[in-house]
Write a structure and sequence with these properties.
This protein is 0% helix and 51% strand. It is mainly beta.
Length: 346
Amino acid sequence: MTVTATDQGGGVGSVGYQAAGAETIAPTTVPGNQTTVTLGAEGVTSLRYWATDKLGTASKPQTLTVQLDLSAPSVVCAAPDGQWHATDVSLACTAADPFSGLADPSAGSFQLSTSVPSGTETANAATGARQVCDAVGNCAGVGPISGNKVDRKPPAITISAPGGAYTVGQPVSAGYTCSDGGSGVATCAGGLAVGSAVDTSRPGTFTLTVNSTDNVGNQSTQSSSYTVGYGICLVDKQPGSEESVVWRTFTICDAAGNNLSSDSLLVQPTGVLQMSTGTVLPFDGVLHFVDDRYLLVLKVGGLPDGQYHLLFTVGSDPAPHSLAFLLDRSQPQPQPSPSHHPKKHN
């Protein structure tokens, strides 16, 4: 700053100044009517100045208060706590400027937050950033702050068994795993414990459900549906008594081949699939239960030679069943063997 003095009489002989406060300057006298004073210390400095004319008469000293703010505001934010969180993390921040003050007083207290998409997890989530300025334009930036652990993804569940189709009595052990790439798995449990036997004692459609929770409370559920059905065990190959009739003899069996056939177990023919055309033809025949087995007799007089499947259902078994047969009238057909008196299934 410049100190200038004027005198209407004999003129100015010298100017003087002195500083105290943030910056100290000893009393200084400079000949002439003008001098430049440089202050470089941050803070509040009181500058006293005066002038003396050529006759030695001094003016009354005057005081000027000078405030210098050379620094940006100080900004302090909390550090990541190292813990996993189920939602976005917000870090508390404070800002202060001891000299000119904050340009926006609300910047004295604020938060920086992460923005992790739902369904994802990360151990290094970063917050946003902010710039804080003081009243004279000095600015400080803060953020992004990394290292925040945010888990917004539920555990993954993989069920290896049961699944698909099984035969009655087939040994099956429950198998499933739970994994979590964030906070880790807290619970993983299903209707059956891992390694325990799955009930395949009766036909039907069933479901195993597994639930899992991670260490911050995210939850997931996975289900696996499976069916249990009867086995079909052939007693013969493909006997036939004449060109117009074929039959199949079979039992309803479990996975070990044990015969489960009974007169009370309903076996219902549903049609005949012609493999060459994919057409399902009406079933024209009869079904007999003979002692411990079934005999399907089919009229094929109007069918051309080729591959066919007899289609039928068994009791509460959810899966359809079929028996393949070949019509090839160029080959001699074996004669049926006598049997006990049959019982007819319509």
